[in-house]
Amino acid sequence: MPKAHLTFGIHVENPCAAQLDCRSPEGNHFPMSTQLVMYEEEFTKINSVCDRLTKDANAKVVFLVDKNGQLISASGQTRNLDTTSLASLTAGNVAAMGGLAKLIGENEFPNQFHEGAKDSLYMTLVGTRVVLVVIFDNRTSLGLVRLRIKKASDELSKIFDSLVRKADGPGIGSPFAEITDADIDNLFSE
After folding, report:
1. Using CA of residue 137, residue 138, residue 139, residue 142, what is the dihedral sign?
2. Domain holding 166: CATH number?
3. Residue 33 falls within a domain, yes or no?
4. Helix/strand/coil for 72
5. 3-class DSSP state for residue 95?
6. Any residues with CB less than 8 A from the CB of 166 and at least 6 apart, and which?
7. Beta-carbon contacts of residue 155 (< 8 Å; ≥ 6 apart)
8. Do residues 137 and 147 touch, judged by C-beta distance below 8 A?
9. Residue 133 CB neighbour total at 10 angstroms
10. Does residue 97 lie within any of the structural domains?
11. How many structural domains is the chain composed of?
């Protein structure tokens, strides 16, 4: 039996179903379904990029969130963090800043930096689907974080573009398409 993952707030097996916001900066839907299937291979690649970014940027925490506030990946010192709340608040912050951007004639603010007394937070949009967040302290610099985020963002964009191509490929549909009502009834019957 394939290894199961807990991702996007639902328990799924390989392949994993993920609800990602598939809208352009103008709010138009992309010509693909709103459900994007994430296979174990891509999920592993995403986690690897986040782990490497944590190390290369000397960051405390790196996490990747979809624009709906669902945590996709978290790396680093996450043990004492409420990653669910961080993910939700990140999505809310991105939405609020998007509203502010539109008020002044911009599409969005793709990068945000917040400096605190002990820790700082840097967020960047990856494509139009997800937000990459890095939490760091004085053991590193904003310049190094920005440099490493740029490389990680490019890698993540390629992974998500690959997922979209797989979803749009001929003969590829939802991995759940062949499940019938009878199958569901049988699963829950005694």
Report:
1. positive
2. 3.30.450.30
3. yes
4. strand
5. helix
6. 37, 39, 172
7. 49
8. no
9. 24
10. yes
11. 1
pLDDT values of the chain reduced to their tens digit, one per residue, 190 residues:
344 333 343 223 333 334 344 333 444 333 333 456 677 888 999 999 999 999 999 999 999 999 888 999 999 999 989 999 999 999 999 999 999 999 999 988 999 999 999 999 999 999 877 999 999 999 999 999 999 999 999 999 999 888 878 776 655 555 566 677 777 777 787 6
Rounded distance between C-alpha atoms, residue 135 and residue 62, angstroms: 6
| Assigned domain for 189 exists | no
Whose structure tokens read 């986040």?
Answer: 50
Within 10 Å of residue 127's Cβ, how many Cβ atoms? 14
Is residue 122 within 8 Å of 133, Cβ to Cβ? yes
> What letter would DSSP give residue 69?
S
* Host domain of residue 29: 5-175
